[in-house]
Amino acid sequence: MLPAAVPVFVYVSWLGVFITGADAFWWTGSIAAFVITPVLDHVIGSNPNNPPESVLEWLEKDPIYRWATYLYLPNQYLSLVFACWLWAGGGWITMDAVDKLGLMATVGLVGGLAINAAHDLGHTRVRAEKRLSKIALAQTCYGHFFVEHNRGHHVRVATVEDPASARLGEWLYAFIPRSVIGGLRSAWNLEASRLAATGKSPWTPGNDVINAWVLSVVLFSVLSVWFRPVVLPWLIGQAIFGFCLLEIINYIEHYGLRRQKTPSGRYERVRPTHSWNSSTVLANILLFHLQRHSDHHTNPLRNYQILRHRDEAPQLPSGYSAMLLLALVPPLWRRVMDPRVIAFYRGDIRLAALKPGARI
Questions:
Q1: Whole-angstrom Cα distance, residue 311 to residue 76?
Q2: Are 115 and 246 in contact (CB under 8 A)?
Q3: Based on C-alpha coordinates, what's the Rg of the chain?
Q4: Fewer CB atoms inside 10 Å of the end CB: C or N, the chain?
């Protein structure tokens, strides 16, 4: 249940300031995510062991794991409402712009992890869980992820056509806009094609991109009316912060890896070797085992609690929490990761994910 408790950081921030008067507590979420978690994740270390086959069926059906994702949503939105109250002048505390920025980062962190909860809820055939996935995405205005991730990214992962697969040598700050714009375009085209096959226009409420965006517009409108428009800039800021966190994780997950084309001209099937893997304990708990990404792409309908560590997959030198910080400094990232990509392909850089038209 630890991931579902992440939104509590919003209340902890306010309570810390209220009790001590120290404005630094507004940055509690950022400190926890980008300082404490990477350190603890490193100290606790990795656990590459997989659950034995004899318990897999029981583990998959244990309802506590689904409730961990369900409970994230009410906690997420209660914390968002509380944050809006604080931004609007509530909480019996005077906040300046820096304080509000710290709270915005904490709320954005909650929204970013909500995308991860939505990611798990979206990988299901249960209609109610798909709807919950859209609701979780509304806070970050990233509802199109529901379409693009499942029907775009999982089909095109580690290919030239996938905007969410980072190329060797590509800096994070070039990747993020390419992935955001490419993902939006792809999601719209996928829905337009789906609706065209049934003779419908894409401009319909049945378009899953449109109805997901409408959820965000309604959410932001209601909060802006309820707490006054003063909260709108902070709502927009936390949304950008949240989906940028997602895109940094996207950058990490497939950096430099490429699926090869077969003699028929089609791409080889997705294998564990097309995603970076990590089994650090704490980050896996907080991220619903997202770090076991190689197994997730190989078995996208497998519930997160039974995802496997895959030895044949390329292994990250640390967990996502530390790798995220490394990605923010492109020269350091390339110094650590480029040699690993080249070593994984046994020195044949032609097999790596190179920019189209790049000279070797």
A1: 35
A2: yes
A3: 21
A4: C
Which tokens sit at 27?
A: 């940055």
Query: What whole-number distance in Å separates Cα of residue 76 and Cα of residue 211?
Result: 20
- Cα–chain center distance at 276: 15
Angle formed by the axes of helices 208-227 and 232-254, to 10°?
140
CA distance 137 to 78: 15
Hey, which residues does 267 pair with through a beta bridge?
Answer: 261
Kindly report, residue by residue over 134-159, the tens digit of the pLDDT: 999 999 999 999 899 999 999 999 99
Instruction: Please give the Cα distance from 284 to 278 (Å, whole number).
Output: 8
Q: 163-203, pLDDT tens digit by residue?
A: 999 999 999 999 999 999 999 999 999 999 999 999 999 99
pLDDT in tens, 65-112: 888 889 999 999 999 999 999 999 998 889 999 999 999 999 999 999
Residue with tokens 């428009």: 229
Nearest to 80 by CA among 285, 226, 245: 226
Per-residue H/E/C for 55-108: HHHHHHHCCHHHHHHHCHHHHHHHHHHHHHHHHCCCCCCCCCHHHHHHHHHHHH
Continuous segment of H or E residues that includes residue 19: helix 8-20
* Residue 141 neighbours by CB distance under 10 Å: 21
Count Cα atoms within 13 angstroms, Cβ side, for 120. Answer: 26
Q: Report yes or no on whether pTM surpasses 0.90.
A: yes
Q: State the amino acid at position 109 in one-letter form.
A: L
Q: What pLDDT digit, counting tens, does each position of 315-343 carry?
A: 999 999 999 999 999 999 999 999 999 99
Q: Which residues contact 279 (CB under 8 A, 6 or more apart)?
A: 46, 47, 48, 291, 292, 309
Maximum pairwise Cα distance, the chain: 68
Alpha-carbon separation of residue 55 from 49, 62, 279, 288 (angstroms): 14, 11, 19, 19
Q: Report the pLDDT value the prediction gives residue 359, as an integer from 0 to 100.
A: 63
